[in-house]
Amino acid sequence: MADEKEIISFPGKAKSKVWERFGFYKDPMTKNIEKSHAVCKECRAEIKYSGNTSNLQYHIDKYHAKKLDSPNQPKQLPIFQSFANQSKLPFNSSRATAITKSIAEYLILEMKPLTTVESQSFKNMFKVTEPRYIVPSRSYFKETLIPSMYKSTKEAVIYDINRANVVSLTTDCWTSHATQAYMTVTAHAISPTWDLTNYVLQTRELPGSHTGELKLLQQFYVKATTPLLALSFP
């Protein structure tokens, strides 16, 4: 009878994992291995074998799929779930710091409202891309990070302008869609390595209409002999 026969594992080195659940009968009388049919170790079903394991895998998937999830073997989780189960990133870790800075740059360069970081869709984006990261509150960006970035950027601009031999200051007056008048002061210089640099030093609201007094104020900025003059304004 088939049950009296011994099932032996695949002889030699098996590459396919199906051989963890399949083997061959060994005749108890002749001791020969019957390789014409593979035998399922779970149900002793005999599957014709000609060197291809596709039909063996089909048998496992159809009849023994539930048994594949062994209680002793942890189930493979999707990558985003695996990250979610890990501990949260420390606030001052290099990874978290880099992400937070990139968010601040996004808010500044794209002129987005600070309430963006409190948007649920914004937070959901990080639940997918980096579930371990906790998005800081808008007060942190407003009161701590962005002022710090402004200070370091201002120091870098002053340093670059001080190294330049000649600085050209220009002004431009414009009116917003809300009919408010503004004047922007820009600085243009060539660095010691002959790189052209351009900086927006300040944009200030100008109450009143564009009169002759405003033109005199523009000339004052243009004729300024030191680039730090514009930077000294609050």
UniProtKB/TrEMBL annotation:
<keyword id="KW-0805">Transcription regulation</keyword>
<feature type="domain" description="BED-type">
    <location>
        <begin position="13"/>
        <end position="71"/>
    </location>
</feature>
<keyword id="KW-0862">Zinc</keyword>
<keyword id="KW-0479">Metal-binding</keyword>
<keyword id="KW-0804">Transcription</keyword>
<dbReference type="InterPro" id="IPR052035">
    <property type="entry name" value="ZnF_BED_domain_contain"/>
</dbReference>
<dbReference type="InterPro" id="IPR003656">
    <property type="entry name" value="Znf_BED"/>
</dbReference>
<dbReference type="Pfam" id="PF02892">
    <property type="entry name" value="zf-BED"/>
</dbReference>
<dbReference type="InterPro" id="IPR036236">
    <property type="entry name" value="Znf_C2H2_sf"/>
</dbReference>
<keyword id="KW-0863">Zinc-finger</keyword>
<protein>
    <recommendedName>
        <fullName>BED-type domain-containing protein</fullName>
    </recommendedName>
</protein>
